[in-house]
């Protein structure tokens, strides 16, 4: 292994599905008490059996004292960017600066349209490109809304925004982390985003290195420092102390400790969101996380190997 080149502090957290039947606020409080750094809430507004993600983010912030909370990721086609910017900034101010923003272009288009959203580009073959353009416009509008400028005006292909005055401004520089997986989406993240959110089911380790390189190259072409872009990996697996290893992220804590250490050192992941069952979160937070931190500190403190 070689030392990671990322500059951001290592962070661990949990990714929760907004399942209305699960005690989500209690899970958020436990994550806060266990010392986890991040709480991501998946946004699936078009599913009938889910609670509203932004409402859950606000409630989780009110029920906790330290953990940072974010939609991971907000469904842009059903979250107009200027309104989303105002909501996120308001939550950041009320929580003392504990909000980040995960943002996605949308995936389940049938569900989006059923809930009144619009498929960018219509049903044509270019709709994926149109969705990326809409995502880029949304990032511009959100940052404009958070600025200290006045006389704001933006008119794009998909979104327009006019305001005499920006605000409210967040109390800390909120990171805009894009949930993208394809090469063009990574190019966009490298150009404009503060972070990349990748689910392990869609971006397994064999694809992660290529994705990281694509992100770095796009950032460099845009004149940005790739080391300033946070790399967030959603761990979609099963943690079971009594189980034998059954493949990547499916096995006992010792397997998870090895795999997460390799992801951080070898693949430059700096943030992990546990996406397994909520009842497994305590084992992740109290056994896996401290051991991974210790292993990474040991690796980074060791002399470079020839």
The residue fraction in helices comes out at: 40-55%
Q: Biggest β-sheet: count, sense, barrel?
A: 9 strands, parallel
Rg from C-alpha positions?
A: 19 Å
Low-confidence stretches: 1-6
Which helices and strands, and how do they pair?
Layout: E1 11-16, H1 24-33, E2 38-41, H2 53-63, E3 68-71, E4 74-75, H3 81-95, E5 101-104, H4 109-114, H5 127-145, E6 150-155, E7 160-165, E8 176-179, H6 183-192, E9 195-199, H7 205-221, E10 230-235, E11 238-239, E12 250-251, H8 253-267, E13 271-274, H9 281-301
Parallel strand pairs: 1-2, 1-13, 2-3, 4-5, 5-8, 8-9, 9-10, 10-13, 11-12
Antiparallel strand pairs: 6-7
Helix pairs in contact: 1-2, 2-3, 3-5, 5-6, 6-7, 8-9
Description:
The protein is α/β, with parallel strands linked by helices and 306 residues long. The protein has 9 helices and 13 strands. The N and C termini lie close together (11 Å). It is globular, with a radius of gyration of 19 Å. The relative contact order is 0.14. Helix 3 links the parallel strand 4 and strand 5 (101-104). 41% of the residues lie in helices and 18% in strands. The strands form 3 sheets. A 9-stranded parallel sheet has the order 3-2-1-13-10-9-8-5-4. A two-stranded antiparallel sheet has the order 6-7. The chain has a two-stranded parallel ribbon with strand order 11-12. It has helices at 24-33, 53-63, 81-95, 109-114, 127-145, 183-192, 205-221, 253-267, 281-301; strands at residues 11-16, 38-41, 68-71, 74-75, 101-104, 150-155, 160-165, 176-179, 195-199, 230-235, 238-239, 250-251, 271-274.
């Amino acid at each position: 292994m070689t030392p990671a080149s990322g500059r951001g502090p290592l962070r661990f957290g949990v990714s929760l599905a907004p399942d209305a039947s699960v005690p989500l606020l209690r899970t958020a409080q436990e994550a806060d008490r266990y010392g986890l750094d991040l709480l991501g809430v998946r946004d699936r507004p078009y599913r009938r059996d889910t609670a509203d993600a932004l409402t859950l983010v606000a409630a989780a912030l009110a029920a906790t004292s330290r953990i940072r909370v974010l939609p991971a990721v907000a469904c842009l086609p059903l979250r107009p960017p200027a309104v989303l910017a105002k909501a996120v900034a308001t939550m950041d101010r009320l929580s003392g600066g504990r909000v980040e923003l995960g943002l996605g272009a949308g995936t389940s288009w049938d569900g989006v349209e059923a809930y009144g959203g619009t498929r960018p580009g219509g049903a044509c073959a270019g709709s994926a490109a149109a969705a990326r353009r809409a995502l880029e416009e949304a990032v511009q509008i959100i940052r404009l809304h958070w600025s200290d400028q006045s006389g704001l005006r933006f008119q794009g292909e998909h979104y327009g925004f006019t305001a005499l005055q920006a605000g409210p401004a967040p109390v800390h520089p909120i990171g805009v982390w894009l949930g993208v997986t394809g090469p063009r989406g990574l190019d966009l993240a490298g150009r404009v985003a503060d972070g990349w959110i990748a689910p392990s089911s869609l971006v397994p380790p064999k694809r992660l290195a290529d994705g990281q390189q694509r992100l770095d190259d796009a950032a460099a072409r845009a004149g940005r420092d790739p080391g300033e872009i946070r790399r967030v990996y959603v761990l979609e697996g099963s943690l079971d102390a009594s189980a034998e290893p059954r493949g990547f992220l499916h096995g006992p804590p010792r397997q998870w400790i090895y795999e997460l250490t390799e992801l951080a050192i070898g693949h430059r992941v700096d943030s992990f969101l546990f996406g397994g069952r909520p009842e497994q979160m305590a084992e992740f937070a109290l056994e896996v996380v401290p051991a991974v931190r210790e292993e990474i500190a040991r690796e980074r403190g060791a002399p470079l190997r020839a």
